[in-house]
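Open question from group meeting: does this chain pack into something compact, or does most of it stay loose? Before anyone orders reagents, we agreed to write out a predicted structure and look at it together. Recording both the input and the output here so the notebook holds the full record.
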Amino acid sequence: MSDVDHKKLSITDTLSVVGEFEHLRRHILRSVQYMDDNDSKLFWVVEANKIQDFRREYMKKYFPVDEKFWCIVKSCATLRQELYETTNGDIDELKRYDTLIDEIMSEIMGQDLSGCEACKQDQV
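Structure tokens returned:
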């Protein structure tokens, strides 16, 4: 695995992008269930499939991990995004969840993700 230049890219930020891809795809597929127009449904299902492809490409580029970790990375990203959307701003609760996800991702990526590395690097 190549070293990541945190001045250009933060693993935690790219993890958020993966979560947002999944978030958008999920909302599209939920919306399609309530559409009456089949032509419109087809358009949105095709777009959801494109988003899935984009997410896969993005993960291959920014998370070159063993396949046994592929779904864990995707799930961590999705979980974090959903937690931020549903915890109503409870900072203590979010910190607990972030810590758990960061521990998992730190193990997978072989880097300490306990803080925002991009912010630390930006101060240099």
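Observations to bring back to the group:
The two ends are 25 Å apart (CA to CA).
The chain has five helices and no strands.
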